Amino acid sequence: MDVFGRSTVSEFVGDRIVYRNLEALDARLPRLAEVRQQAGLEQGPVPRKQDPVYPQVIVHLLQAARRLDAPDAAIQRLVYLGDTRLADASAFLSLCKAGGWPGVGFIGSESSGPAVTEVSQMDDQVWLVVSNRWAAVRDLEKVCAEHGLALDAGTALVIDMDKTAIGARGRNAQVIDQARVDAVQDTVSGALGDAFDPTDFRKIYDLLNQPEFHPFTADNQDYLAYICLVLGSGMFELDDLVASVRSGQMRSFDQFIREVDARQDDLLPALMPLHQEIFKSVQAGDPTPFKRFRRNEYLSTVGRMGELDDGLAVEQLLKGEIVITAEVRALALDWGGRGVLTFCLSDKPDEASIPTPELAGKGYLPIHRTETHVVGSD
Ligand SMILES: [Mg+2]
Hints:
- The chain is α/β, with parallel strands linked by helices.
- The N and C termini lie close together (7 Å).
- The protein has 16 helices and 10 strands.
- It folds into 2 domains: 2-169 and 323-376, no CATH class; 173-298, no CATH class.
- The strands form 2 sheets. It has a 7-stranded mixed sheet with strand order 2-9-7-3-4-6-5, sandwiched between helices. A 3-stranded mixed sheet has the order 1-10-8.
- The protein is globular and about 65 Å long.
């Protein structure tokens, strides 16, 4: 593996990207409310990847993006790059179905040992390539050719951002996770002040982050950060909470935050405003209610991009920095040059991906515009 200088995700997708709110960063593209209106979809909460409305929104955005620079072309086929077998493969298949498109999807996750790349058929005219080498994205051109899929203005290349375009799974993804854990820790320690105990925090976070507790935390990092905060303040004991989750007495995060709210007098006075702000957002149905945590996540994420010196060894960069996946970038640049529409999807909350106006004034940029090293195999 080698370092190929520095770049940004925007080099190969421009502002054709949506973060979790599905509001395209390219201001010329329709807003989510307009997309829903134009596509005849009902208004409502922002759809997540597994919602049936999600692929319809993305298909509409892809066609709108295509019309911006190639008014005579229409998307007729899809190539999708992702890193998660279940979530990305099913998102890919649902996009093909919603668009009525044939397609080839790629799921990458690097591991040591012999290279294994498998092609399987998911549906009529829909194929999936799964590989333990990111370099295998280069095989996609051949797979497309075998199935008669041209690479031109009628093709959309949709790239998952997190752990695919940046922080490649199996290679560099742990730095993305570390940035998030650090943000939880910074937020909780900042709020608790002297009462913060890093050892306790790690114990609480690592245990409640396990899949066993997903029904309780909804696998939502905002909820988990809030729970760490309340436990860190000493209002609940970890053992007691774990026991009541396991026995079914504590069934959901909603129940937990209501209980905290009912016992406000036991809350550290310093935590009161923060609790009230988060409680209000949760009641309003905001899936990312812990704004301070997400702003810290933004800072700790961009703080790990492009910060290390040029000339460091590949291993050091992969350990310490969130880097761009060279193979994905090369493919996107090559295909983009042949007229293929490139588009990026990120599941990261917008608050953790885009700077506040104040930070933007200081020169901070959205993640996809933040420069970092490019690492991969030639
Ligand atoms: Mg991903």
